[in-house]
């Protein structure tokens, strides 16, 4: 899964992570201001449902 969002400094932050329809916790750092974000990605509807 790829995710992308805008940091508070205005820089785009993105990353790619793999998962099997389960909750994933990851961290990503803004390359501009070094802010670290912790994200928990939770599928709401699993594939095939």
Descriptive notes:
The protein is mostly beta strands. It has no helices and 4 strands. It has one domain (2-41). Helices cover 0% and strands 45% of the residues. It has strands at 2-6, 12-16, 24-29, 36-41. The strands form 2 sheets. Strands 1-2 form a two-stranded antiparallel sheet. The model has no long low-confidence stretch (mean pLDDT 89). The chain starts with a strand and ends in an 8-residue tail after the last strand.
Layout of secondary structure:
Layout lengths: L1 E5 L5 E5 L7 E6 L6 E6 L8
Antiparallel strand pairs: 1-2, 3-4
Structure summary:
Helices cover 0% and strands 45% of the residues. It is mainly β and 49 residues long. The radius of gyration is 13 Å and the shape is elongated.
Helix and strand sequence? EEEE
The N- to C-terminal Cα distance equals 18 Å
Shape: elongated
Overall mean pLDDT score?
89
How would you classify the quaternary structure?
Answer: single chain
Largest sheet: 2 strands, antiparallel
Parts with pLDDT < 50 across at least 5 consecutive residues: none
Total number of domains: 1
Q: Strand share of the residues?
A: 35-45%
State Rg.
13 Å
Side-by-side strand order of the widest sheet: 1-2
Give the class from helix and strand content and strand pairing.
Answer: mainly beta
Note the total helix count: 0
Helix content estimate = under 10%
How many E strands? 4
Characteristics of this structure?
49 residues; two-stranded antiparallel sheet; Zinc finger domain-containing protein, LSD1 subclass; two-stranded antiparallel ribbon; mainly beta
